[in-house]
Structures are given as structure tokens and as C-alpha cells.
Specification:
Layout lengths: L1 E9 L3 H12 L4 E5 L3 E3 L4 H6 L9 E3 L7 E4 L2 E4 L3 E4 L4 E9 L3 E2 L14 H17 L2 E5 L3 H13 L4 E5 L11 H13 L3 E3 L4 E4 L2 E4 L5 E2 L3 E4 L4 E2 L32 E3 L12 H19 L14 E4 L5 E5 L2 E3 L2 H8 L4 H7 L9
Parallel strand pairs: 1-2, 1-8, 2-5, 8-18, 10-11, 10-16, 11-12
Antiparallel strand pairs: 3-4, 6-7, 7-8, 9-17, 13-14, 14-15, 19-20, 20-21
Helix pairs in contact: 1-6
This protein binds flavin-adenine dinucleotide.
Flavin-adenine dinucleotide binds next to helix 1, strand 2, helix 2 and helix 6.
Length: 360
């Protein structure tokens, strides 16, 4: 079956849902396609695995329960500047298409699932991961970026008696943050009993983890590799190979238009727009793009996109964290709690004109 829409949005993450809701509210005919049938607040997933009782299914919500325009569950296999083809064989023709297919963490599917495309399968996947973690006495977290730091902190908060090691290849945690944020995060993790090892590269070697730099070995019950984000852009290679840069990101101009095309746009983790790939940045981009498309339809002037001020809050457990705000680094509760309260779940749904499941 073939269909026609004004605006096709491929990918319902923070960017795609943001642009879909705003365009639909202004009366634009929008079709959102995602391979999953649910939206999920990624920020909450590490705590959701470490302690599922805290938020239950609150991070997830069926698209059909809150998306204003049309939603189709399906995987887009190829796309050109007129139509997209789904894995089911269905063709969707469009006037404009917005690509917001985000990224994946192949080494850590608990953070963003690769195979659980259905809401209940995902809940099952989370509880399976929680069971595994519960029965492990010792845990190795590989990678000291925000994801690794947060995972080590969440596990230490939920299971203070586990032996937790965080191994990082560099000589400071949170590479992209300021030295004060790096020091504070280390202090907070150490206070929770996490052992942090720097300049280590551990990989599985039969039944141990071996460091390729020092040859040191670790025997652990469970290991998580928190490294290696990849953009979900392979499906563009068949018909639009020239739009991808060397890292697989989609090349866009300052109006989020895909280079060389007037009616194709890209935003969020899959676009070469902002260096820092953050969910809140993707939702800002979604809002800006929706406004620009509405203004250009009305014949009004459109301003180029400007990167929002850099702000990151890294939680190091349920009641601690570091915030690097535009004015500096702080561990003050007021700022850390902007994320800690419910890891941004209510705020994200509010932004999309909805509420989390369980709070209706
Ligand atoms: C553990 C963790 C913690 C994080 N913490 C924070 C944080 O505290 N603050 C913050 O701002 N950011 C955080 N991030 C980063 C944030 O999650 C990403 O920047 C954000 O998810 C990007 O949003 P997006 O809309 O670009 O893409 P995504 O959220 O990746 O969504 C892309 C969507 O596209 C769909 N899709 C992909 N390919 C196809 C296809 N071919 N056909 C159909 N559908 C497709 C996917 O199913 C998915 O739903 C964190 C990330 C992780 C992993």
C-alpha cells in the first residue's frame, strides 16, 4: 500500500517527536515513522535497569498514545527526495522529509534497544538486564564518559555491596567536561565505593578481562562496555550516498537542510550539526526546524540555527552529580536536581504536550 504525506519524519526520538508535535499542532499533515512502537527517555534507562522500581515504565510511552499526527511503525530501508521505502514494501511519498534516526550504542543495548521494538518486549528486556545485574557480585564498567560514569553511579547507589570497577582509557573521567567536573565526578564515585582505573583498555580474553596497555587482568561477573556511539544513517547509502560525511553523519546547512536538497532535512544525533550529541539539543533543533518550516510556509524570514549554550548534568548515583552549566561547574543540589528529580522524564513529556505513563 502506498501513501502520501506533506512532511515525513523518519525516527521518533527527541528530535523527531519534537518536530512532529509542533508541526502537527500548527495544522501541517505529518507522518512519523519509527521502527519501535514506543518513545523512550534515554536519560532514564541506566537507573531504570539498576532500580526498575523507581520509575517503572514511566520512561516509555506508546507513540499512538500521544503523537498528534499520523504514526506508522516500520523501518525505512531507503529514501530519496520524493519517497521512502519501508521494510514492509510500503512506499510513502512526501513533499518534505526530516531525518531524525539518531544513534545506537551497539555495545550497550540496555541504553537504547536494538531488538525490542515493542513496548512490552522492552519492559521485559529491562527486567532481564536488572536480574542479571542483581545476581552479579562484581561489575566492570568500561568507558569513563557520561554513560559509563552514570552507569557506575547508578549501580553503586542501587547495590552498595557490589564490587564495582570503572576503567577508562584516558587519565580523567568525562573527557569533554572541565577539570573541576572531572575531579568532582571521581570524588563522588569514590565516595560510593567505585574503584576507578585510568589509562586502561580492557577487553574480554576467554574468561577474564585483560588490559591491552598494562596486561592486568580482572575477573568479574558482569561487564558493560559504554563506548562507541554510531549514527543510524546506513539506510541513506543506497540512494543518497553523497549526503554522509566520513563519520556517517548527514551533512546539513545552517537551516538543517541536507546539503544539495531543498526538501530534505536532518537533525539530532544523525546530523553533522552540533558536535555534542545530546537529547535536549535534538529537541531544541526539532522546535527550531518546526518554527522555520511554519515561517517559510507563511512567507516569513527564517533565521539560521544557533547551537544552544553547552550544559551537561552527569548523575553519579541517585542523589549526587556534577553540572557543567554555561556559568561554570557546580555540584549544588539545585542544579543537579534539574536532572535528578525524575531524570527529565516529566519535562520531556511536558515539552511534547503529554505526561509519562503512570502519572495520568
Ligand atoms: C545512557 C545515555 C544517557 C544519556 N543522557 C543524556 C542526558 O542526560 N542528556 C542529554 O541531553 N542527552 C543524553 N544522552 C544522549 C541522548 O540520548 C541522544 O542525544 C538522543 O537520544 C538523540 O536524540 P535523537 O532524536 O537524535 O535520536 P534517537 O533518540 O536515537 O532516536 C532515533 C529514533 O529513530 C528510530 N530509527 C532509527 N533508524 C530508523 C529507520 N531506518 N526507520 C525507522 N526508525 C528508525 C529509532 O528507533 C529511534 O526511535 C544519553 C544517551 C545515553 C545512551
Amino acid at each position: 500500500m502506498n501513501k502520501q504525506t506533506d512532511v515525513l519524519i523518519v525516527g521518533g526520538g527527541f528530535g523527531g517527536v519534537g518536530v512532529a508535535q509542533k508541526l502537527s499542532k500548527s495544522g501541517v499533515s505529518v507522518t512519523l515513522v519509527d521502527r519501535k512502537n514506543y518513545f523512550e527517555v534515554t536519560f532514564a534507562m541506566l537507573r531504570n535497569v539498576a532500580n526498575p522500581k523507581l520509575f517503572g515504565n514511566m520512561p516509555r510511552k506508546l507513540y499512538s498514545d500521544f503523537i498528534e499526527g499520523e504514526f506508522i511503525q516500520g523501518t525505512i530501508e531507503s529514501l530519496n527526495d520524493r519517497e521512502a521505502k519501508l521494510a514492509s514494501g510500503e512506499i510513502i511519498r512526501f513533499k518534505r522529509a526530516i531525518i531524525s534516526t539518531g544513534s545506537r550504542y551497539p555495545s550497550l543495548p540496555l541504553a537504547k534497544s536494538i531488538s525490542a521494538l515493542d513496548y512490552s518486549e522492552r519492559s521485559h528486556e529491562i527486567s532481564g538486564n536488572h536480574q542479571k545485574l542483581t545476581s552479579a557480585r562484581s561489575v566492570l564498567v568500561i568507558g569513563g564518559g557520561v554513560v559509563g560514569v552514570e552507569l557506575a553511579g547508578e549501580i553503586a547507589s542501587a547495590f552498595p555491596d557490589k564490587v564495582i570497577t570503572l576503567a577508562h582509557s584516558g587519565d580523567a573521567l568525562l573527557d569533554t567536561l572541565k577539570p573541576k567536573a572531572q575531579r568532582k565526578a571521581l570524588e563522588q564515585l569514590n565516595n560510593r565505593g567505585v574503584t576507578v582505573k585510568f589509562n586502561r583498555r580492557f577487553a574480554k580474553d576467554v574468561d577474564v578481562y585483560r588490559c591491552s596497555k598494562s596486561n592486568e587482568t580482572l575477573q568479574v561477573d558482569l561487564a558493560y562496555a559504554c563506548v562507541g556511539m554510531l549514527p543510524n544513517t546506513e539506510f541513506l547509502k543506497a540512494e543518497l550516498p553523497g549526503v554522509l560525511d566520513g563519520s556517517g553523519l548527514i551533512k546539513v546547512d545552517a537551516y538543517m537542510r541536507i546539503e544539495g536538497y531543498e526538501n530534505l532535512y536532518a537533525l539530532g544525533d544523525c546530523a553533522a550539526l552540533d558536535v555534542n550529541k545530546h537529547g535536549y539539543v535534538a529537541s531544541v533543533q526539532g522546535g527550531v526546524l518546526a518554527d522555520s518550516l511554519i515561517r517559510s510556509e507563511q512567507g516569513k524570514k527564517v533565521k539560521p540555527y544557533k547551537t544552544p549554550p553547552f550544559a551537561v548534568i552527569a548523575a553519579t548515583g541517585t542523589d549526587s552529580g556534577v553540572a557543567q552549566m554555561p556559568f561554570g561547574v557546580t555540584t549544588a543540589k539545585f542544579f543537579v536536581n534539574l536532572k535528578q528529580k525524575d531524570l527529565g522524564i516529566s519535562n520531556m513529556y511536558k515539552m511534547y504536550g503529554s505526561v509519562p505513563d503512570g502519572l495520568v
